[in-house]
Input
Amino acid sequence: MIEQGVDMTKPVRREPTKGRPNKEDSRQSITPMELVQKIDGLIESGSLIPGQRLIESDLMAEFSASRGIVREALRFLAGDGVVEILPNKGVRITKFDRERIVDMVQVYWGLFRTAIELLVSRPLPEEAIAALKTSLDATLAAAKVRNKALIIEGLADYHEIVVRYSGNEYLPTLLKKMHYRHYVKQEGLQTDIEIMLDTCTTYTEIHKNILARDVDTVAKLAAQVSVAWLGGLRQETA
Output
């Protein structure tokens, strides 16, 4: 797909404001930030993949957005590193190399360990306990049939529940902006299945100790998982 007539300035990190209607296109049913969230969601779900081109006219038609709204949303996403604006070539979803994925996973595991420690340090509501158990059961079921994709989905769900109930309102936003779920899923599919099965076993212990509110043991187990995954990724990078 080829980008049509884009001549945008250097991307900046700023929150977009509502675009102004013009004579050529008065469609204003979506704001730039709403469009940013829509594109973020498509990347998160895997509907948009790294390296894929984004065509201005397609986005305008699909989301009933003006050209100005689309361009402002894309500038914002470029400022966050989600997309790349290429001179005379248009816009594409950023494609991370393996080393950058390793860096992202390293940061992610640090944030996740923080979330776990915060979660365990406070009383767990019943809905959090039930959600964690449902997610863990789905992950273990996927492990029994050695389904990598479903294991990754189950672990990602478990992580999101931990983060959601950690009590830190900024953590969910931060992890979402990393698009960790999508990129980790892409790399996780290349991870040795035995590492993933060991991870599932460890998460059974993590879950028990979360319920027991044993912060130290949970932190140690989470560190073991992160070392195993990072080790696997680094071997693939070498």
